[in-house]
């Protein structure tokens, strides 16, 4: 048998199993393979070869087709059925040249064929081709392992982030600690529902003095963690628990009074642009409510027009528009004044309500909200806000809203019946 040149470096193929009932043929093949640097195992039958495969799976099998007992084709089929960690390349040695026979061998799982007597140069070329395939298979396996490992790490990280976001959601919801408060002549109910784990909406109420309260709704641009962090920062600026830190309040003697809402909006705009390095901005509606007289003074900074529902059921939108806070230096805001009477109620809501979209893209808008409040005329307090969520879900065709939904509902109690 003529000798071939030096073998290329062996990487994917190290162990070769030679299966032939002819000892001479095995010795001839094994001599060349060992000279090329392969570790060679010999077997004289298919059954013996299977035992070797179970003990130490080979990278490459060279098997004669025609053998007594178990043929090379049957051995190949059994070899393919074995469980192993990587692919094994299988070359059948045969004197057959019929295309139908070769197709039958490929169906049984053979990767390649060599015609006997085997030419060493052709054998080297077929082994090199098999090695390229095994290299690609093992590279792909390694890449899949790395991908699966990375996915496992990402899933662990996602689970950790999800747990953190759930805690963040609880903390954000705690910013609206009193969902309903009875104030004597009036009652306040609040709703905060984020479209994701956390959101950029916030609603709140803070006492001013014996007869005044402050109400606000705000909506920070964007969604997610950065918006939620900004709402937490803004909650501190409008805190009811720490009036000395509330920018909407000023101390007069031993008491606090509320600054004109427009001036507070302008102060927040200056503060936002000068001290907070962020690309966020926010819309705001801030109202000073006199519970004794029903007088309301409010400033609107890009927030939706609030809805007043009168005692007879009529709904009207009030406001003066205005720029969002944190967009333009020196922005000016206007105070708007109106009066609430016994039986009236005021809803301050985010654009997640009026911009809620139906499946065809139609927005609820102010008219849709007015109709909704009309249908909920007899529903009060938190029940009214929860019912509004149900109606929004019916309108949208889903309760997974695209935007955060928030609202403050101030209800002036009806006058007691006269004697």
UniProtKB/TrEMBL annotation:
All copies of the Response regulatory domain together span: 15-131
Q: Which GO terms describe its molecular function?
A: protein serine/threonine phosphatase activity
The chain residues annotated with the modification 4-aspartylphosphate are 64
Q: What class of enzyme is it?
A: hydrolase
Cite the entry's keywords alphabetically. Answer: Hydrolase, Phosphoprotein
- Keyword Iron part of the UniProt annotation: no
Enumerate the SUPFAM superfamilies for this protein: CheY-like, PP2C-like
Q: Phosphoprotein: present as a keyword of the record? A: yes
**Matching Gene3D superfamilies:** 3.40.50.2300, PPM-type phosphatase domain
Q: What is its EC number?
A: 3.1.3.16
Q: What is this protein called?
A: PP2C family protein-serine/threonine phosphatase
Organism per entry: Roseovarius aquimarinus
């Amino acid at each position: 048998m003529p000798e071939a040149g030096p073998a290329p470096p062996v990487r994917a193929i190290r162990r070769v199993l030679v299966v032939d009932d002819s000892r001479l043929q095995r010795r001839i093949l094994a001599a060349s393979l060992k000279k090329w640097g392969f570790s060679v195992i010999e077997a004289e039958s298919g059954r013996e070869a299977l035992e070797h495969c179970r003990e130490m799976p080979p990278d490459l099998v060279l098997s004669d087709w025609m053998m007594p007992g178990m043929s090379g084709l049957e051995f190949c089929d059994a070899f393919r059925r074995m469980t192993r960690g990587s692919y094994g390349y299988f070359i059948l040695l045969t004197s057959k040249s019929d295309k139908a026979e070769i197709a039958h061998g490929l169906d049984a799982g053979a990767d390649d064929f060599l015609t006997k007597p085997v030419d060493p140069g052709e054998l080297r070329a077929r082994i090199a081709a098999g090695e390229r395939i095994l290299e690609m298979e093992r590279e792909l396996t390694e890449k899949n392992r790395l991908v699966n490992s990375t996915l496992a790490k990402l899933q662990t990280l996602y689970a950790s982030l999800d747990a953190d976001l759930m805690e963040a959601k609880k903390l954000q919801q705690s910013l609206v600690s009193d969902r309903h408060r009875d104030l004597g002549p009036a009652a306040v109910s609040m709703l905060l529902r984020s479209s994701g784990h956390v959101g950029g909406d916030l609603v709140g109420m803070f006492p001013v003095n014996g007869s005044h309260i402050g109400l606000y709704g705000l909506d920070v641009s964007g969604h997610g963690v950065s918006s939620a962090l900004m709402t937490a920062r803004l909650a501190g600026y409008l805190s009811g628990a720490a009036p000395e830190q509330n920018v909407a309040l000023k101390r007069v003697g031993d008491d606090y009074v509320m600054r004109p809402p427009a001036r507070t909006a302008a102060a927040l705009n200056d503060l936002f642009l000068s001290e907070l390095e962020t690309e966020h901005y926010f819309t705001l509606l801030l109202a000073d409510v006199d519970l004794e007289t029903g007088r309301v003074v409010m400033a609107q900074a890009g927030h939706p027009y609030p809805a007043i529902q009168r005692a007879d059921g009529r709904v009207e939108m009030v406001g003066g528009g205005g720029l969002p806070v944190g967009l333009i230096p020196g922005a000016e805001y206007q105070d708007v004044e109106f009066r609430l009477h016994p039986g009236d109620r005021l809803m301050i809501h985010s654009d997640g309500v009026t911009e809620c979209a139906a499946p065809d893209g139609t927005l609820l808008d102010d008219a849709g909200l007015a109709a909704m409040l009309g249908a909920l005329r007899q529903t009060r307090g938190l029940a009214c806000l929860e019912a509004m969520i149900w109606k929004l879900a019916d309108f949208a065709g889903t309760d997974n809203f695209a935007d955060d939904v928030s609202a403050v509902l101030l209800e002036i109690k009806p006058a007691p019946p006269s004697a």
